[in-house]
Amino acid sequence: MNKLVTWGNELYTGKRSYPFTSKHRLWFTIAGALVILSILVPVVKGGFNLGIDFRGGSEFTVSDVQNTDTKIGETAVTSVASSAEATVTNIAPNTMRVQTERLSDDETLAIAASLADGYQVSSNEVTSNFIGPTWGQDVSRQALLGLFAFVILVGLLMAAYFRTWKMSLAAIIGLLVVIVVTAGIYSVSGFEITPSAIIGFLTILSYSLYDTVVVFDKVRENTKDFSKQSKRTFEQLVNLAVNQTLVRSINTSVVAVLPVASILFIGSYMLGAGTLKDLSLALFVGIIVSALSTLFVQAPLYQWLRRNEPVIVEHTKKLTVD
Amino acid sequence: MSSIRPVKQARKALLWLLIVFIIATGVLVAGATTGKTGWGPKLALDLEGGTEMILAPRVQGDQQINQEQLDQAVKIIRQRVNGNGVTESEVTTQSGRNVVVSMPGTPDQATRELIQASAAMEFRPVLISGSYEATPKDQRTAEADLPKPDGDPKNASDTNWVTADLYKKFEAYDCTNKADIKSSENADPAKPMISCDAKVGVKYILGPQEIPGDQISDAYAQLARGVNGSVTGEWVVVIEFNQQGTKTFADTTQRLIALQGAQNQFAIVLDGQIISAPTTNAVISDGRPQIQGGFTQESSQALAEQLKYGALPISFDIQSERQVSATLGADQLTAGLIAGIIGLGLVFIYSLFQYRALGLVTIASLLVSGILTYLALVLLGWGMNYRLSLAGVAGLIVAIGLIADSFIVYFERVRDELREGRPLASAVDIGWGRAKRTILASKAVNLLAAVVLYIVAVGNVRGFAFTLGLTAIIDLIVVYGLTHPTLVLLARTKFFADGHRLSGLDPSLLGVEPLYKGAGQIRRFGENVEANRGKKNAKASGEAAKRMTIAERRRAEAEQSKRSGTASSKAQEENNE
């Protein structure tokens, strides 16, 4: 603790300082490269690994299975619908998942029964899930709508709160970087995109902006009367604010990521795929990317957006000439 | 600076929190002991087991379905599902488009079809009326006297539709018997049918369908007007037909007006049940018939709604269907709870590591937030039938981090103020003033996200958004009602105010000079040290100076002049690292 606190003190007083704003070209280049990669990779890979919700089909989950042989599941499906192709996977200890193409109601009920039979479990251990092909599209459409509404509302909220649209703009550009890069990481890793993952993405929006608000609040405080002092240039003040909030940013991010990591761990270990795991995976990646983005994209971007304002140019010139 | 006011306020805030807590607990205990609610939150289907179907309306072309029609559809589907003997099923709308049906267990094929079928509304002429219950066996018409059609029926009102078989069935038909009612649900529009009018307590034999429901273009309730145009105070229902409906209805009324008795009536049938069977008083050629007869405002509006729904018969496709076994749900809930406990534990450990004794304040605040959230979930389950889903549990776990965040923002602020050299009590007061704003702004962002997510939500996103929003509000209550007041009071204790090594607010660690400065010199803790700061801190202390009251500034200036040239310097400060 002592070391971290000392480090925090040095950051606070400006004795130790990391070049968040002055090296903005480097950070922007890295962020830009990541964004381009995040867009290119899915294109090269031929899109995301879309879950059953987007393809449509039937899914069965059999819990409490002793014998995890995938053959049993395949036989159970073909015995009812001979033409159906089944993908059987052992997703977690004692849990099997069977995915097939879209089945009729009768077939679904019959397969559920024959799966219970095959795996020697009672019929209430079998969960079936039928998803129409438009379901995933509906979720995505609503998610896009949500994204759009949220970005506009929060843009207005931040502009009103910080009383400068440039902060709002910087925050939202950074937010888009976070979304794109998180999606890119998702694509590279080959994780399945499910509606739960999309909810995770939407939650990242909230977290990312939350993180930005905390840092920007300090930036605003530091730069409020910047022209009345002659110790630091505007850019240095922004950088000092980011450094001063660094400990706070690290602490809040660690605290936010800990519970998410525990869902991720428990979710994958105990349950395999599912709501909890997909959600926490998106959040886990998103929280880390958000925290980094606030420091390296949002804050330097705000300074960059304002660098040509006459008052700032004049103030900076006065300080450098002195 | 007077320390009485903040302390008083802190005590008041704690008292308020206690009152809220006691009231909520009291309501819960009262509800639970009288059996009106359980001790735990209500669980959603994915945790309790059962079936959830998401139905999408089947619409043609660019037809749009509006909220009103959707609400009607929900009412009708609810009637069907519950009428079918399935209890505890829930029918709700989702994002202004879909209908969600949740029910325990697995629905059979019949229930599935029933849910998906469109509401079929139609107009049929009445042929014969009879008593609501089945005619007693000994009073039934003798075999020889049963009606014998003497030819093909010429129009929908022709009694030749009534065969001996149909009449026998009619006499045996019992409107209080569910099986009988169900048999008339999917009647062939080209054939006569038997149906009941529960409002009047009569059963009828109806002729074949004359006008299908989709020829109604509108229906509304209004106050009837007398001959001279004055309002009579009687509620009537006005139907508006489309062009084709107008023409057919004119022909029908033309025919019915000449007929006597029950044959003068026509029945409006929805899903096999008669919703109204008015008599014909006039030939309606303008396609705007008025139904009157003892309506209240409410009953007339209800009928108008039903009629309007008939104007667009919607059938539904099952878009997604999940059958969740109770075991899987229980497993997931267990896993979720374990994840939550681990997450909470990790946050506890991290806050103790980072903030020492202050970490205990975080832990206490998190525990109180947890209890308040629990109370809120149970009470919302009771009052609003809120059900906790797996996604909701995920939201609660994610919220642990978000709640702890606001404490960190606050504590770091207090540390910042200590770094400026303030005594703890005023560091807490000033730090709070600034942290409060940040916390409010960031919680507003959280809440906004939750509300947007909730509104556009599809599927189980709603539960997630709901708990996320709920915890954002509870976080604010706890920060204002517990964390801050506790800190204000603790700041007055010796342990914290003297900056004990374990307090997490040890000024020496925060770069402020130690109390004992060596060579027998002891600096009074809380002394204004800004004046002694090195050049690097000039800006920061300048800012702090700006925040001082005039009296404080004068005192600081006086002290500065008194102490100038002596003791501490920047070099000494750096030695403390």
Automatic annotation (TrEMBL), chain A:
GO terms for cellular component: plasma membrane. It holds the Pfam family SecD_SecF_C. The keyword Cell membrane applies. The chain crosses the membrane at residues 26-44, 143-162, 169-191, 197-216, 254-273, 279-297. Residues 121-307 form the Protein export membrane protein SecD/SecF C-terminal domain. It is found in: Cell membrane. It comes from the Bacteria. It is a multi-pass membrane protein. The keyword Cytoplasm does not apply. GO terms for biological process: intracellular protein transmembrane transport; protein targeting; protein transport by the Sec complex. InterPro entries: SecD/SecF_arch_bac (IPR022813), SecD/SecF_bac (IPR022645), SecD/SecF_CS (IPR022646), SecD_SecF_C (IPR048634), SecF_bac (IPR005665). Keywords: Cell membrane, Membrane, Protein transport, Translocation, Transmembrane, Transmembrane helix, Transport. One of its GO terms (molecular function) is protein-transporting ATPase activity. Part of the Sec protein translocase complex. Interacts with the SecYEG preprotein conducting channel. SecDF uses the proton motive force (PMF) to complete protein translocation after the ATP-dependent function of SecA. HAMAP family: SecF_B. Belongs to the SecD/SecF family. SecF subfamily. Forms a complex with SecD. Part of the essential Sec protein translocation apparatus which comprises SecA, SecYEG and auxiliary proteins SecDF. Other proteins may also be involved. This is Protein-export membrane protein SecF. It comes from Glutamicibacter ectropisis. The lineage of its organism: Bacteria, Bacillati, Actinomycetota, Actinomycetes, Micrococcales.
From TrEMBL, chain B:
InterPro entries: SecD, SecD/SecF_arch_bac, SecD_1st, SecD_SecF_C, SecD_SecF_C_bact, SecDF_P1_head. It is found in: Cell membrane. It is a multi-pass membrane protein. Residues 135-155, 544-562 have a biased composition (Basic and acidic residues). The keyword Metal-binding does not apply. Belongs to the SecD/SecF family. SecD subfamily. Residues 70-126 form the Protein translocase subunit SecDF P1 domain. Part of the Sec protein translocase complex. Interacts with the SecYEG preprotein conducting channel. SecDF uses the proton motive force (PMF) to complete protein translocation after the ATP-dependent function of SecA. The chain crosses the membrane at residues 333-353, 360-382, 388-411, 440-457, 463-482. Keywords: Cell membrane, Membrane, Protein transport, Translocation, Transmembrane, Transmembrane helix, Transport. Coiled coil: none annotated. Gene3D superfamilies: 3.30.1360.200, 3.30.70.3400, Multidrug efflux transporter AcrB transmembrane domain. This is Protein translocase subunit SecD. Residues 202-314 form the SecDF P1 head subdomain domain. Residues 131-159, 533-577 are annotated as: Disordered. GO terms for cellular component: plasma membrane. GO terms for biological process: intracellular protein transmembrane transport; protein targeting; protein transport by the Sec complex. GO terms for molecular function: protein-transporting ATPase activity. It comes from the Bacteria. Residues 315-476 form the Protein export membrane protein SecD/SecF C-terminal domain. Forms a complex with SecF. Part of the essential Sec protein translocation apparatus which comprises SecA, SecYEG and auxiliary proteins SecDF. Other proteins may also be involved.
